[in-house]
Structures
1.
Amino acid sequence: MIIELNQNIMDSNNSRADEVRKVLVEHNLVMINIISSPGSGKTSLLEKTLGKLGKVFSLGIIEGDVNTTRDARRLESFGLPITAVNTRGACHLNSTIILKALDELPLDNLDCIIIENVGNLVCPAEFDLGEHAKIAISSVPEGDDKPQKYPMLFREAKCLVLNKIDLLPYVPFDRKVFYKDIKNLNPKLPVIETSCTTGEGVDAWIKWIKEFITENRAQS
Amino acid sequence: MHEFSIAQNIVEILTQTVEDNRLIKVELITVEAGELRQIVPESLEMAFDALKTEEDSPPAIRNCRLNLIIIPQAVSCSDCGCNFYPEDLCYICPDCGSINTEVKEGDKLIIKSIEGETD
């Protein structure tokens, strides 16, 4: 016999993501999911962001790592509630992990939760975590071809940060190619250029995220 | 290696279907993967083969073959209504230049059907 199923393979992840969304609505929380390759500056950007953003909003962090809690330790000095999640080898976070992590954060006292996903451009883009926005970070030394190679993430993202622009004079990175590919892939995607070393562009990024949080809290 | 998590979900759904329909043997599972999901067929097959033969998987699925069909993308323009394939990953409407376009096909992961025997 042939059984026609037509079932979405991601159903179980998606239904737990719906549970996450319910929790977020109950507590009027905005959740941001930061995704990039390993080493493109997720933790560095957060180090530049948390001080200033933390003055306006009450923040909580979910720090995903395949192994170790190094990134979480780097962010400890900000004194914010942080939950470190080890995926024990898995290359992405899923909505079950997030649902559990939410239990460990003081949700009633927070405005926004920032997730630092595991460094990877393919898998994290696949998984709905119940977040309001996926933010992609691409960095100059990775090359200008990342959007073409990993289209899913750049299609899913609500904002793209191009980090390490201080290295533009030293590495082959064709801005024209990068921007043309982004425009074709996701014409509405805002791109913010930053350098966590010089601080350039960081204020523009903080402005974007502030506006995003304000807008989305007002809606819920 | 998102293929591993995806294979886990496939085996979970397959196991549930075997129980619900009291199947004694499943021969074939047909999966449709949208091109945009960047599934590596060999990786998905390897993960599926490893998981279906695990001790806690039902014996009925041990010899199940995976039939993976990659679905090409189809994009539709919300302004002029034309349908197109995003050549070179360009999602701007080739007819009217609109950026208001929507992926209609090629972004999903679906178990289409299961072929098996009941007792």
2.
Amino acid sequence: MANMTAKLVIAAALVATAGCAKKRPEVLPPAPEQATPTPTQPDYGNQNTVQPGSAQDFRQSVIGDTVHFGLDAYDIDSEARQILDSQAQWLMKYPNTRITIEGHTDERGTREYNLALGDRRATAAANYLIARGISASRINTISYGKERPVAMGSDEQAWAQNRRAVTVVIE
Amino acid sequence: MQTLLKRMALALAPIAALAGIQPASAQVEVDVVGGISAPMPIAVPAMPTSSPVNTAAGNTVELGKQLSQVITNDLKNSGLFRPLGPDLLRPVSFDQVTAPAFSYWNTTGAQSLVQGYVRANGDGTLTVGCYLYDVFAQNELTRQGFVVQPADWRRAAHKCADTVYTRLTGEGPYFDSRIVYISETGPKGRRIKRLAIMDQDGANHRFLTNGQSIVLTPRFTPNQQTIVYMSYENERPSIYAYDLNTGRSRRLVSSEHLAFAPHVSPDNRWVVFTMSTGGNADLYRVSMSGGTPQRLTSAPGIDTGGSFSPDGSQIVFESDRSGTQQIYVMNADGSNQHRISFGGGRYATPVWSPRGDLIAFTKITGNFRIGVMSPSGGGEKILTEGWGDEGPSWSPNGRVITFFRNARGAGNAEIWSVDLTGVNERHIPTPLGGSDPNWGPLRP
């Protein structure tokens, strides 16, 4: 329904970069809202400007776009809470934005079970944001099970990275 | 790109069925508990032709040799035979097809002999004759004939191999059948997945989807008109039905919720599947024509992997309601849910044997392995020793199980098969990587 192409591009970019996601300090202050009218053409000369409320702004503003889970678990731990709190703050600031939360698993479960487990994780992250005051109507969830790992190895470290829920701003 | 299946009018009809009445002196010893005692030596010389004719499938001389090669491969792949194929045997004249030179065949060490012929008919079809002889007793055991379109010549060979296999083992036929699976290529994090179909020996391979959307877990309807599967089309993962006659797909479950794990009922009317709402996955069923799904389970936790018993009265599924994935059986309406697996480890992806006497599953105890148990939970037996063996599916006769073998690290998954006795583990070759194989019924 929403702009699928854009969403797919974002998803692809995330997959490409999510492995090196690190904690960033919050950017402050936010750029003034509606600073510039939307140009009719992309402004290639001004690439460093991050559009407030954009997916890029989200990734730069929050502690992380990804929360991780224990083996076969979907509970939101204290580290995940901090990350989701920062996401909730940003979402409060930009009430017209919508997000998709992607749930993922490691490869040590069967395919169909993992689809359900990925859904549990995406739902757990979504429920946390809803409890923080974000409207459920702004949140879409999707489970990829074990189909889209970010770490390609078959070891504990890779599996821990792959047990995740990733928040993507829909553009 | 997408090849549409133009279904030929069903042109594979037996023209003669004269079952041998002789006592079976040549009989393969099949021991389901312990394994295969010794593969039976069997001779499969090239099939002669009444007259060399060029057909759409090649010259009938060459075709006779290819038919025998397909039969040889089928019998060899079963693990129950040690065939001598056309490359190792002297040619047979057309006259000898019904009058074998038993004195010669005795010297080859073969206990049985498969002879036949190929003939191009005036209407463009082919006739393939198939004769099975007992070399020791020097008599005919059975004969069959098949009329096929040239494009279906391999099916005639599979039917002949099925005739031989059935007569000598007492098992049901399975060579004339297909496998639908997921073809996989590309890096592990962005793997391109396509629906693909092939004969059980890997021949006649075709891609059915173009790889734009992730597709998973295809399963034949028993009438083989349709393949139900999961697709991420429009990033709204749900269950779709691919029509093998038209090459078109339609969405089967219209709900916004995540729907997956489809299996079709034996009467082709229902699809049991899993839908996850609010993080809670339960089994539902929906009519093959669509409509509103009916809920079958409601336990908290993940209920998935539902598959019908051959008579359609029961459904086997997996649930983690006890804390770990275990196998449960219930009536097809959702009543009388009870757990049947109690061994150590987790159990997943249960599928009922077409014979009804066994349930195959993935067992997770660190490694993933394929196993079987009875529908009441007894007699558990582990068949494979892989690192990541997953997703069993039964051959039409309930004798062989296909599954996929995940690779450690970034490698491709592969399609494998194993005999019910745990022997004869075999890689089924596919053009790219492969997963989620589903073995279709015997073709009509």
